[in-house]
Predict the 3D structure of the following.
Amino acid sequence: MTSSLKIIAFPGAPNLPVFAAMAQGYFARHGLEVSLTTTPSSVYQIQAFHAGEFDLAFTAFDNIVAYQEGQGAAQLEGASDFCVVMGATQVELSAVMSADIKTAQDLKGKSLALDAVGTGFAFVLYDMLEQLGLSLDDYSRVAVGATPERWQSVKEGQHVGTITIEPFTSIAKAAGFHVLRQSTESFPIYQGGIVAARRAWAQSHSKVIQAFIRGYLEGLAWTLAPGNAAEASALLMREMPEIKPAVVGAVMKSLTSPRSGLTPLGAVLHEGMKVVLDLRSKYGKDKAVLTDIEKYLDLSHYRAAMT
């Protein structure tokens, strides 16, 4: 019997293990028919996910924290019951700037494009710029949407910079833009992407989640296998035509590095999650001190899948 599973994710190279699991038939082997939709923004993703339009979400760990703490940017009907069921990426975030922005001081009085001004990736950017000597009052922040929309707005000159993930970092560099700072310089371990479910749905669909995790991990292993590098690169370019042969090598190098990309075995990174909580404690609208990582997790399905 085949079960259908609907996933919503941000556009980006970290979706490659899902592409691989689809292409190699790993999900099908575990009785799943999987569809993947990319989101134009975190607000759209969370609203649609909360409404039950999607079963699983590849999203930022901070999004789960934000909505659990009542600090999310989107308005939801009823309380959220999101939980992390698996890790996905460490994610290397890059502060990409136009060519005329040579130093952080050049950003004063300029505007930066963000997904939303109160999300975890935005907090990473704020902290990186603070380390370079800027305060939040030194520049303006504009909510534009997911990485493709942000990158387009910077490319068109509407804003002087943004924060990107691969492949958009390499695409921007190839187009003459430059990276002012990368998150791995500031945070050696950072829990970027995770897989989330709604707790109530997960409790009644544990077998489906376990099947997904097994298929995903097979896709992840295939992606990380050195012998599959050429085929994996071709698959990524096929699924994301904006990635050109000139940059795919750099994209794959970052993606397959455990320091900046996919997390081996889909493990959660507790130390990296602590960084996320620390940043939200510092920049979140309530300034509440957050320390309890376990309240955002339900790894029972992951442990069962690994048994």
Q: What stands out?
A: Residues 116 and 143 are 5 Å apart (CA to CA). The chain has 14 helices and ten strands. Residues 94-186 form a domain with the D-Maltodextrin-Binding Protein; domain 2 fold (CATH 3.40.190.10). The chain has a mean pLDDT of 96.
